[in-house]
Every structure is written in structure tokens, then in C-alpha cells.
Amino acid sequence: MTSLEDPKFNLVDEPWIPVLLDTGESTELSLHDFYGRLYDIRKIQTDSPLTDTAILGMVLVIFARAVFWGSSIQEFDDLALWVRQMKKRNDENIQGILEYLDTLNSHNRFWLVGGERPFMQVHDLHTAKGDTKPVSRLILDSESEYFSQRAEATLKSLSFAEAARYLVTLQAYDYSGIKPGAVGDPRVKGGKGYPLGVGWYGATGKIIVHGANMMETLLYCLDYEQLTSESFEHDLPVWERLEPDTAAPRAYTGGPAAAYKDEPGPASGMCEILTWQSRRIRLHHDGERVTSVLVSNGDKWLDRNTYTDPLTGYRYSKNQSSITRPVWMPQPHSSERTLWRGADALLTRHTPDSEKQNKLAPVIRQLGLGRYFDTDSVAEVQLVGVEYGTQNSFVENIISDSVQLDLSLLTESGNDAAQMVCENIKATMDIAVALGQFAGNLLKAAGKEYEFQADVTESLLHRMEDAFRQWVVLQRSSEDIDFQKKEWQDKVRRFVEEEADFLTVNAGPKAMMGTVKKDSSKNEVLYSAAHARRQFEGHLRKHLPLAYKASVVHSHKEETNE
Fold first, then answer.
1. Pairing between strand 192-193 and 179-180?
2. 277-286: string of b/e by CB count within 10 Å (b at 16+)?
3. CA distance 234 to 123
4. Is the pLDDT score of 214 beyond 60?
């Protein structure tokens, strides 16, 4: 066994979490100072949404365990009263959290390097050949050609604070692929650890509700059903477990390696899944900075019918389900139209009579119940996810988008308004597709082959995002729904008609004159810009009926006055 080093860099005492304060100042805080200033912190703010989210998951678990461990939440019969009490700026509200940290810290659970159980690592992790990797392996996009060249030239080491942030992020979002085989892992073959998949966070689409300060954010993101259940006592994060991790997966209890069954069990709850150790890691240092790292396979998570993560929704999987056993899996986000599809998913109602529908993220579901929070307020809802490349072997795209919503839209009283917003989202995406078809028809009018112009569709949706954000934040359960619906459709109509005019002008004289082609019945038809525009007007009537009807009436009045 490797001899133990003196522990270095304590996460409770040393600053490592970058935050934005309500004063607009950016700073780095230790865990102790982070919880001491929960009412002053606006948000966690690193240079990566993935790191922000990974750290949020960790501090959320500390918060959950601390309020449960200290029994503060159990002193209230009414959870809503407890939430209101915690939202008030009061030193007593954070005292229990600091006591929790101090108790665990006295048991050496938050040292970054050295000691018997360095944080989220295995102290004696090693390969048969003693291999390590450069510190760039800690950074998710280090596999890209550009980054690798830059890292080789300049990134020789990391500060302990940087390494702590990357460590938490890697456990959450690491890509899949062959890892160095660690001595003591029965799954290793030929010195290699074969792929187990991405980190848990990477398989999910995180939904985060941001409050006015970090205390409110943590309160929004708790799953209160789990927090008040008897099983929560046994839902332990990695730093509370009695036995430290080894190179072997936790499910492995001994015996010959050939007897090992790679069958993960479900996480016991939100604390375990949000701190799931998908990798075994060991940081190497020179006493001042982290200089190299070993990253091997860790614990494989169970991806179906778990529902323990409060920050993700779950989708019904027809392919994985059987007649007797329906299956729901974590719902990832897509980079394609993230805002539009994400907002639609947040507001779409789930009826109890449908067994095969998707399941809302607990953080959204409990807002809809209206039990714990004042829903007559506005909060920022952020969608965070990642798309991986071939065989999930590298990070291809980071997804982060947000929208401010009046929380009444998530409640039963806001059902009609929420449905109206969803209808307008669908109409917007439909008319954007119709605009892409219109651009394709202009090609046809100019004598070319028809081809749907996806870039026209996506460009329109992208240009309308800010207008949508400004409109949707004003929607409330008590508003005039018909008026608000028409107001948005009017905005969309102006956008798309301006874009259609621009496309027509740029189609050229050939498209104006038109091209004779045979239709599906072999009849000769003149396809022109005017013909394409008439077809597009039909889509306007179909998808934006309120705006189109109003524009026709307005045009008729103008003609009458003339």
C-alpha cells in the first residue's frame, strides 16, 4: 500500500468555489464561507455551466444532509413554514450547516489530497505500471485537438482550487471510453478498464430553479418528498460513507474477478446519486500544485426507474419497456431548439390517467403543487446538459439556456395560461419550419431543386429567443389569455413576414419570373416567388390564426378607407 501523505487543501477552509455576490462582485469562497454567505450569493459562477452545475449538486447535498442531520426540518410540522423561515436572513438558519461541516471535517472528509480518504478519490489508486496522465485529463474538453495543443504547451499543473473544481465536474460529467486499469479492480482486462458510460450528470438534462439568492436556490432544488422520508437517513453522500472507496466497484464484495456481475443497484436517493462516483481518481501533486492524475473506472449507475435525482425529468422509453414492466430513463436536453423545447416541457401538463407519459423533474413537480413556495413570484429556470461525440467518447456540445417564469404557470391555477404558452411555442416552431420550406420553394422557383432550408428555420428561432423571454416572463395565471396569445402571434407574424420579404428579394429575378415544372400529376405548373408566397400565407393562416385574422381585417379597413 502506498504510504500516506499529510493531507493538503481543505475544501471547508480554503477558497475554491467561484461565486457572484449580490453586490456584483466575483470572489472565491470555501465551503464554510459559502454557507455562511448563502443570503449574499447570487449564483455559483465559474467559466463552465457544467462545473457550476456539478458544484451546485454537491452543495445541495451538503445542505440537505445538514438540515436533516441537524433535525431543523423535523422540528416543523408544516414544511411551507420551514421554507419561509429558512428564506429569512437569519444566522441560526446556517448554524446547523456549519456544525455539520465541522463535524465531518474533524473526521478528515474534505481534504483534497493526502490522508486515507482524499475527497472523491482513492488514496492508493494506481496501475500495474504506475501510469499517470497530465492534468489536462481533468478537463472535459481536453480531448479536442486545439485544447490538447494548448495544454501541452502551457498547462503543466493546476492550483488546488482549480483541481477541486475539475474533480467534482469530472465525477459528474466525464466522457466514456477505455480507462487505465487500476490494480484491485476485478473488471480490468489486459491492463484496461472498458467503458462504463458517462458520468451520471452527463446522462441527464439538469433543470435548476434559481432564486434571488443561493439560499432560495437550494430551497427550490430540494426534493421535499425524499427529505421527509424515512429512507433519507440511509441516503449517504460519498463523504458520509463509513468505508472509503477502493479501486473496485462498491458492488463487488470479494471472490474471483470472473464471478463479478456488473449489475449496478439503484441509488438510495438524491444524496447518493448527486455525488455518484462514476470514476476512481487520484490527484498527484508536488506539495503546491496538482501535477498529474489517474482516472479509472468507478461505479456504474442504474439508468432506469430510479427517480432519485431532483434536477432531472424522466422519459418513458418504449423500446426499453415490456408489457409488464414500463421503463423511464433520465431525460437529456438537446442542443436543437433548447429554449423552445425546454420551456414547452416545463409547462406541459401531465395527466394522471396516462401511464406512458414523461415524468416531470421533482424540482418542477413540487412547484406545481404549490405547497412549499409562494407561486406569485418570478424565478429563473436554467436547462443544463451536454452532448457527447462518437460513442460518448468526448464532449461535443455544452447546453445551457434559461428562461424566467412566473411560478403560477406551474400550478393548477395556471393551467390555462401554461397551455396557451405551449400552444404558442408549437405555433412558433411550426411557422419557423414553414419559413424553411418557403426558402426551399424559392430555390425551386429559381430553377433549382427543392431543398428544405434548415438554417433559415433555426436562424428565425434563434432571433426570436430574446423576444420570447421578454414575453413569457409576463404571462401569469390571472392574465387575459386570449389577448396574450394574440400578442405573441402578432410578434411572430411580424418576424416571419419580414424574413419572408428578405428571402424573396434575395431569391433573384429568376425566382420572380418563375420556372415551369411538372407537378405530381405530370401537369406543367409555373413555380414562382409569388406562388411560394401564397403557399406560405396558407401556413400563416394555419399556425398563427389570431394574428393572421387581425392582419386581414386591418388590411381590409385600409383598402376601404382608400
1. antiparallel
2. bbbbbbbebe
3. 25
4. yes
User: How would you classify residue 99: left for phi > 0, otherwise alpha for psi between -120 and 50, otherwise beta?
Assistant: alpha
Nearest C-alpha neighbor of 530 from the set 519, 518, 544, 515: 515
Q: How far is CA 351 from CA 168, 348, 359, in A?
A: 37, 10, 10
Quote the cell numbers at residue 540: 400563416
Q: What would the mean pLDDT of 389-398 be, rounded to a whole number?
A: 93
CB 271 within 8 A of CB 235: yes
Partnered with residue 21 across adjacent β-strands are 41
Q: Rounded to whole angstroms, how far apart are CA atoms 268 and 236?
A: 8
Contact criterion met (CB below 8 Å) for 380 and 400: no
Question: Mind giving me the DSSP string for 71-102?
Answer: TTGGG-S-HHHHHHHHHS--HHHHHHHHHHHH
Judge contact between 139 and 158, C-beta under 8 A: no
- The set of long-range contacts for 323-330, using a CB threshold of 8 Å and a minimum separation of 24, is 326/355, 326/356, 328/304, 328/358, 328/359, 329/303, 329/304, 330/203, 330/204, 330/205, 330/303
Q: Say if strands 524-527 and 515-518 run parallel, antiparallel, or are unpaired.
A: antiparallel
* Predicted local confidence at residue 266, as pLDDT: 82
Amino acid identity at 343? A
Distance CA 291, CA 136 (A): 10
Mean pLDDT of 523-548: 91
Give the bridge partners for 297, in sequence order.
279
**Confidence at 558, pLDDT banded by 50, 70, 90:** very low
Of 301, 299, 300, 296, nearest in space to 124 by CA: 296
Beta strands in 201-257 (DSSP E): 206-210
The percentage of residues in the chain with a pLDDT greater than 90, rounded to a whole number, is 69
Q: Give yes or no for a contact between 464 and 492, defined as CB atoms under 8 angstroms apart.
A: yes
Report which residue type is found at 92. E
pLDDT of 520 above 80: no
What's the residue count for the chain? 562
Whole-number Å distance between alpha carbons of 194 and 187: 8
Q: Which residues contact 538 (CB under 8 A, 6 or more apart)?
A: none
